[in-house]
Amino acid sequence: MKHILLVDDHRTFLAGTSMILEKNGFRVTAASSGAEALSHMEQSSFDLFVFDLKLPGMNGFELTEAALQRCPEATIVILTGEDISEHYDRLIELGAACILEKSMGGQEFIFSLHLAMQQLTVLPLPLARQLRTKNHLSASPGSESGDLNRSLSDKELNVLKLIAQGYKNKDIADRLFMSQRNVEYMISRLFEKLGAASRQEAVIKGIELKWLNLISQSAD
């Protein structure tokens, strides 16, 4: 029997999902926070991890990273009720195997978990289409903006977009599920890569290279 660690801070959803999993032959350990999940990891081994993204204290990004530090071979599924397309690259970089929507049906959910355990990635169709468009844009040869895209990470591009929209460091940290210190470090790297001395210069450079417009299309 496969053992799943299910983490979600909505207790009704947690109980209902646990019931679905148990009816389909899984053994379930449930947790309502990242701290509780880490405690379970110290006491038991798991075949699959299913994490909500928005959790109290430690968010799903941080929990994914912590789980993989403890168990590098872990198969981690992100279960979310929100549009997280702008965070997809970060989740894959961290090591998440699968991103599922909470609105999907029970049998689809179970089928997707079985695919994840076979090391097959499952994505919502709109997100897969968006990634195809994004890859096509970034593969366009011979342009200065293409060189910039290769030198900036997706997280840096997202930060640049939010700077252009007038967000402060704390707001950027909240929207991208990052610490404020990491945002400050990323902005300093952006300035260095763009040859900018201020936020305004960074935005102007982004507009000149036409990457702010492309970022907006990718994140919508």
UniProtKB/TrEMBL annotation:
The keyword Phosphoprotein applies. One of its GO terms (molecular function) is DNA binding. InterPro entries: CheY-like_superfamily, Sig_transdc_resp-reg_C-effctor, Sig_transdc_resp-reg_receiver, Tscrpt_reg_LuxR_C, WalR-like, WH-like_DNA-bd_sf. Pfam families: GerE, Response_reg. The keyword Nucleotide-binding does not apply. The modification 4-aspartylphosphate is found at D52. Signal peptide: none annotated. One of its GO terms (biological process) is regulation of DNA-templated transcription. Residues 145-210 form the HTH luxR-type domain. Keywords: DNA-binding, Phosphoprotein, Transcription, Transcription regulation, Two-component regulatory system. Gene3D superfamilies: 3.40.50.2300, Winged helix-like DNA-binding domain superfamily/Winged helix DNA-binding domain (1.10.10.10). Residues 3-117 form the Response regulatory domain. This is Response regulator transcription factor.
